[in-house]
Amino acid sequence: METAFRQLPSVDQLLGHPRVEYLCHLYPRQTVAIWVRGELEQARKGIAAGQRPPTSEELATGIEARAQALGEASLRPVINATGVVLHTNLGRAPVSYEALAAMRSVGLGYSNLEYDLAKGDRGSRHVHIEALLCHLTGAEAALAVNNNASAVLLGLASLARGKEVIVSRGQAIEIGGGFRIPDVLRQSGARLVEVGTTNRTYVSDYEAAITKGTAALLRVHTSNFQVVGFTHTVSLAEMVALGRRREVPVLDDLGSGCLLETAQFGMAHEPTIQESLEAGAALAFASGDKLMGGPQAGVIVGKKELVDRLRRHPLARAMRIDKFSLAGLAVTMVHYLRGEAVSKVPVWRMIATPLPEIERRAQSWVEQLGKVAKVVPGESAIGGGSLPGQTLPTRVVSLTVPRVDELAERLRAAEHPVIGRIAEDMLLLDPRTVLPEEEGALLFTLSEALSG
Ligand SMILES: *Cc1c(COP(=O)(O)O)cnc(C)c1O
Q1: Among candidates 171, 289, 189, 180, which has minimal Cα distance to 236?
Q2: For the domain 79-87+347-450, what is the CATH code?
Q3: Each residue of 199-243: pLDDT tens digit?
């Protein structure tokens, strides 16, 4: 073992290794020396555990890996060929060019984020989005925060701390990523009063639960599952009618933040923010990066008096939207204002892509990939807590290879990773969620992985 230890190069010798020396051009020498010492330390532990001493080449590879792990961004683009338009693990909504351009220009320099250019004095970041959100949804007032989870928490903390909030048992749900309505209610300091049963809730259930301590009726859009069969839910309009009679506001957590009619694309109707306010919700909450198709954000719209209370709550400062999201969200809203959302906002463009167009793209991929590939009918999903169980007919490229898991692994390990879906030992790639400008990289990565 002693001789094995002595076979290890010294720190200086390793720093002189050509590959390690190259790293010294990219990072300060002291930083590289830390990685060298770490790698040598690991090698000594390995020897003590009975392993053979690594060669200098192996040590250099380990040192490069240490540099790469820290120095190269681990968050990077992937190509979403799953056909799930709002894939939470893949970053939800891609934003439009125009939205990204706005985020870029606000980030590269200074901005009037909180500066009133007319007065030459302090301004408010909220002015950049409020009028747009009001115009598009018909709201009296609007506020954007960091995400929808914080929007709901802010709403409940501002309006219901120390009081009761009534929710149907069928809506006391988990959205995903640990966002559970009962937990959020507890964190806000409100007390959850669950009414009805998992499958059936009636207006009379809400009515019987209202007391002097009731601060709100909360509706939660059951955005990621469906209860089918013997069910009864209370409509928002019915909740509002009850709320008016008993002077209790109705809060509506919509989740997906839909502003367009989804039925025009052959899907079920997804509740829109406009409808929610028209039905009389006092406040509606939505995500910026689901069907709104913008950057991560939480959108709160509704009665001015209530929005003002939220704005003044100390948590509003803790949850405030950042300048990048604000810039991107505002430009995304302008797409809706101009009536160009279906052609400009990527999630809507994907949803609206006609089947023949998808078929054409799938065919062109198959032509370049050869015999292993063929075009087959499939289903794209919306995902991201919108339109549960709803799919859009699509055409997918199916790849039949001996070891489909290994192919999927090679695609994930590529420079520009490609994520597909595996079904019945085939790898399925849906053109719907692949941006046209990603096609070159997709086909390159696929050809490499198929030949490798
Ligand atoms: C997605 C969702 C949330 C959470 O929104 P984030 O923007 O991810 O914080 C809350 N409520 C509902 C109903 C949702 O669908």
Answers
A1: 171
A2: 3.90.1150.180
A3: 888 899 999 999 999 999 999 998 666 777 778 888 999 999 999
Closest residue CA from atom 1 of ligand 1: 255
Q: How far apart, in Å, are the Cα atoms of 450 and each of 261, 414, 445?
A: 41, 12, 9
**Mean pLDDT, the chain, as a whole number?**
94
How many CA atoms, within 13 angstroms, populate the side-chain half-sphere of residue 25?
Answer: 5
Is residue 384 scored above 80 in pLDDT? Answer: no
User: Ligand 1 center to residue 253 CA distance, Å?
Assistant: 8
Please name which of 419, 281, 434, 300 lies closest in space to residue 361, comparing C-alpha atoms: 434
Give the start-to-end residue ranges of the domains of the chain. 2-71, 79-87+347-450, 96-344
φ/ψ bin of 279: left (φ > 0), alpha (ψ from -120 to 50), beta (otherwise) = alpha
Alpha-carbon distance of 421 to 28, in angstroms, equals: 43
Point out the ligand 1 atom lying closest to the alpha carbon of residue 385: 15
State the DSSP string of 257-294. -B-S-GGGGTSPPPPBHHHHHHTT-SEEEEESSSTT-S
